[in-house]
Amino acid sequence: MQKRSLGVVQLWPLLLAISASSALFGVLAADLTKEPFTIRISCGSFDDVHTAPTNTLWYRDFGYTGGRFANATRPSFIVPPLKTLRYFPLSDGPENCYYINNVPHGHYQVRLFFALVADPNLDSEPIFDVSVEGTLFSSLLSGWSSDDEKTFAEALVFVQDSSLSICFHSTGHGDPSILSIEVLQIDDNAYKFGSLWGMGTVLRTTKRLTCGSGKPAFDEDLNGIHWGGDRFWLGLKTLSSSSDDQPISTENVIAETLLAPNFYPQSMYQSAIVGTDRQPALSFEMDVTPNKNYSVWLHFAEIESGITAEDQRVFDVLINGDTAFKDIDIIRMTGERFTALVLNKTVAVSGTTVKITLQPVEGTHAIVSAIEVFEIIPAEMKTIAQEVTALRTLKGSLGLPLRFGWNGDPCIPQQHPWSGVDCQFDDTKMHWVIDGLGLDNQGLRGVIPSDVSKLQHLQSINFSGNSIKGNIPFSLGTIPGLRVLDLSFNELNGSIPESLGQLTSLQTLNLNGNDLSGRVPASLGGRPLHRVRFNFTDNARLCGIPGLRECGPHLSVAAKIGMAFGVLVAFLFLVVFSACWWKRRQNIIRGQKLAAAREAPYAKSRTQFTRDVQMGKHHRPHESPRGGNNESSPHLLS
Ligand SMILES: *[C@@H]1O[C@H](CO)[C@@H](O)[C@H](O)[C@H]1NC(C)=O
Ligand SMILES: *[C@@H]1O[C@H](CO)[C@@H](O)[C@H](O)[C@H]1NC(C)=O
Ligand SMILES: *[C@@H]1O[C@H](CO)[C@@H](O)[C@H](O)[C@H]1NC(C)=O
Ligand SMILES: *[C@@H]1O[C@H](CO)[C@@H](O)[C@H](O)[C@H]1NC(C)=O
Ligand SMILES: *[C@@H]1O[C@H](CO)[C@@H](O)[C@H](O)[C@H]1NC(C)=O
Ligand SMILES: *[C@@H]1O[C@H](CO)[C@@H](O)[C@H](O)[C@H]1NC(C)=O
């Protein structure tokens, strides 16, 4: 089985052009004159890879966070096999992602092949989960690497924000290892199964079988077109090992193939499995995850030579015992032989198997060309974008160690939130928000960015027991619902921002064991009375509330400015006072001289002299013509 050229050579430089022109696809069906958006990545590869001789282009590795490259083992369905992979050691964090940008809005088939690191000493089959756009759609379970059918995973997903994220979530057993990633655009209405279908669902391909040929095949091998997403079909010659059914095939052209929205290739219908006289019914059974909804697609075409008219083959379709379709007569329904018929049915499955039975009416045999089964997964809602950005800033600013990961979306998939982050679903906004940060005792050495306040839904912050430096950001006081703020046992310095007094919901404030200085804001000082728990101890330079020392020379900047201003005023006052005193003294001396001149007694007191001088001013203007300049001074003092 080989993959042929897909005509995506040279696509890379054209990505921008494609994303511009694809805006049209928003509501329209596939425009067959255009090529769908297609990206294939050979993980761990430094160079673009062409899988000669078929010339499918696999881009060199890009767009990932973390991980290492290695040589790959395990055969995959890609021929010839890709030689490298990327794997993600747990020490690099539990969440690792590929981000593929400039992806036009639309509907995509995302397919991943997995492989093992080619190291004979490494006997670890990794067990991990895979998500696309935050929705978990595949879990690799023990034994996957020895079952070809389980070496790949595929999902159909809508991309709405031009960036596609594919994340790998460690479960602690081995290092997730990825061979290849394919992002293949399909028709916006592909696999429209009913009312649940749409942006709110992700379809996981659970099974895709072409019957009768016995060989696995991609759409390309079956002469499909690119809008079909180059589906991968497992081949079956018989539906179950114990049954007596038979493969048949034809060279005839099959009508009604390659039609929108699913563009099924014609070759798929040129082979089939049919029942026999001994066993006219057909039945196929597969294991599934219980308590999920499944979308089942069945493909038929009348290709058996003996069946040429209506009523010669009539059968019911039962899924887990319930009649899904009654009295299927392919020729009656399509009008002709060699014409494709596609039926789909959505079923809720409570058990661990899906059993599809084609039960013919008396005297006829059942037939089936292909079977597809998809698990219907509700798509996760993302975390509000501003808060994701704020967490990324926090990650850098606090210097979060690699082991934290913190890639992808913080809250989804819900099975794998970021460690240290508590999430809550906001029903009104239909987004996840962050309501808690627990990064206590993690050896953090950075600073708290003021952007932390963009996490407006936080109720609790615990950064206790790290080596966080710098100041407590003023902006923390703007998180309205903050109830717990524990920054104890760090190396924070500077003063406690006044803004913390605005936190009306605050219940616990632990700032003990830092290097904080200055006065505890008055706005916080009264709170212990209101049953808010505080701890400010073990900050040698902090003062101002009972239990801490008295505020001495260590004053806030404002207080220092205030004091400096006070001193200046006092100084100016002193200067003026001295000047006045000196002038008054001059007046006294002059007064004495005047008195002497008038032969007044020397024994007059100063005040009397003053009064005399004042009276002199008001009542004896004729006196002391030179005293005019000084006359007001005694007024100032009186
Ligand atoms: C991968 O295989 C190539 C030979 O195919 C070899 O030269 C190279 O050293 C291998 N790389 C690693 C990381 O084992
Ligand atoms: C799938 O089945 C539903 C009803 O069961 C039908 O409305 C829909 O057209 C079918 N989809 C396709 C693509 O045939
Ligand atoms: C299955 O679909 C029904 C609606 O048809 C829905 O109510 C139910 O929640 C779905 N179950 C699961 C597990 O998604
Ligand atoms: C913060 O974490 C520390 C260390 O794990 C813990 O002792 C403390 O109780 C936590 N603070 C609060 C307010 O829960
Ligand atoms: C706080 O500590 C930093 C070094 O960690 C220093 O640069 C800064 O001047 C200190 N600020 C105060 C107010 O002590
Ligand atoms: C405050 O923190 C100190 C350690 O810094 C501790 O010894 C003390 O018990 C705490 N006080 C209260 C009231 O929790």
Automatic annotation (TrEMBL):
It is found in: Membrane. SUPFAM superfamilies: L domain-like. Residues 627-638 have a biased composition (Polar residues). It is a single-pass membrane protein. Residues 606-638 are annotated as: Disordered. It comes from the Eukaryota. The keyword Transmembrane applies. Coiled coil: none annotated. One of its GO terms (cellular component) is cell leading edge. GO terms for biological process: cell wall modification. Residues 41-375 form the Malectin-like domain. Residues 1-29 form the signal peptide. Keywords: Membrane, Signal, Transmembrane, Transmembrane helix. The chain crosses the membrane at residues 561-582. PANTHER family: OS07G0107800 PROTEIN-RELATED (PTHR45631), RECEPTOR-LIKE PROTEIN 4 (PTHR45631:SF181). This is Malectin-like domain-containing protein. It comes from Hordeum vulgare subsp. vulgare (Domesticated barley).
